[in-house]
Amino acid sequence: MLKYSISGNLSGQLIIFINGAGMGPWMWKNQIEYFEDKKCIVFDLPGHGENKDIEFISIENCQEMVSQIVLNESESKEAVVIGHSIGAQILMSMLEHNQEIVSRGIIISGLNEQMKFVNFMLKPLVSVSMPLVKLRWFAKIQSNQLSIPNYMFDDYYNDSIKVSKETLYRVLYENSNFVFENRSNFTKPVLILVGENEKRVMKKSARKNLMLLEKGIGYTIKNSAHGIPYESDSLVNRIIENFINDKSIEEHKEILEIIKE
Predict the structure, then answer these.
(1) DSSP summary character for residue 259
(2) CA-based end-to-end distance of the chain
(3) Residues near 135 by beta carbon (within 8 Å), at least 6 away in sequence
(4) Do 107 and 88 form a contact (C-beta atoms < 8 A)?
(5) What's the pLDDT at 213?
(6) Are 67 and 41 in contact (CB under 8 A)?
(7) pLDDT digit string, tens, across residues 147-205
(8) This model's pTM is above 0.90
(9) Which helix (H) or strand (E) holds 188?
(10) How far is CA 142 from each of CA 74, 88, 156, rounded to the nearest angstrom?
(11) Which of 34, 54, 191, 254 would bridge with 237, disulfide CB 3.0–4.6 Å?
(12) Regions of the chain with pLDDT less than 50
């Protein structure tokens, strides 16, 4: 069972935050403070931080563990689930396998494009990367690529050095081979967010996810890359709040609607 922490209003609506690989609950700091009226749950992924002794097996296995948290902590047996990066893929897996426990989903920078060509490079890439991970200067380069603010760097570095070679390989493999097809026909509201400065494949995935979800709405966050929750935290918090409460999102000038192709 994953270790997790609860904050906010214990009687409030349950929100589950699922962070990206190599990240930790600290990445949701600004969201936890903003949604203090909700019952907020955060945790380290398997193989990370406080859960480093739990093997990271697969995205589907992760969604099973997250789903169990919802069942344990929600009287209604459902929750608003927010996922970033591989956390967004875990959310999509929940939509496939345990959709009844997701009242609303928020997919932030969720890759949905299988990249099998990466597979043959993974093992040598991981072998080369592991000795560098423990070096602060290398971690700083990586954190800059992820747009992690300086005040979160020590948390990022301390978490990254705990990740094993096996975990890193499994995470990269699962991330690059994940495909969401909405075979279970999830029909509840889903918000899809992607950064204006993200890679093309991430924007393509956002459009694909939007087309797959009947009640999906999608927006591009201006001047943001892959670190939307902490790069544009004030804006994203208001957008999420409006989405949860069925209020208009279009009023925000810092967003662009994702157009279905």
Answers:
(1) P
(2) 41
(3) none
(4) yes
(5) 95
(6) no
(7) 899 999 999 999 999 999 999 999 999 999 999 999 889 999 999 999 999 999 999 99
(8) yes
(9) none
(10) 36, 20, 10
(11) 34
(12) none
DSSP string, the chain: ---EEEEE-TTS-EEEEEPPTT--GGGGHHHHHHTTTSEEEEEPPTTSGGGTTS----HHHHHHHHHHHHHHH-TTS-EEEEEETHHHHHHHHHHHH-GGGEEEEEEES------GGGHHHHHHHHHHHHHHHT-HHHHHHHHHHTT--GGGHHHHHHHHTT--HHHHHHHHHHHHH-----TT---S-EEEEEETTS-HHHHHHHHHHHHH-TTEEEEEETT--S-HHHHSHHHHHHHHHHHHTT---TT-TTEEEPPP-
By C-alpha distance, which of 133, 106, 135, 122 is closest to 194? 106
Closest listed residue to residue 244, CA positions, set 64, 111, 79: 79
SS3 87: helix
State how far the Cα of 134 lies from the Cα of 129, in Å rounded to an integer. Answer: 9
And the tokens for 27? 């990445």
Cα 66 to Cα 246: distance, rounded to the nearest angstrom? 25
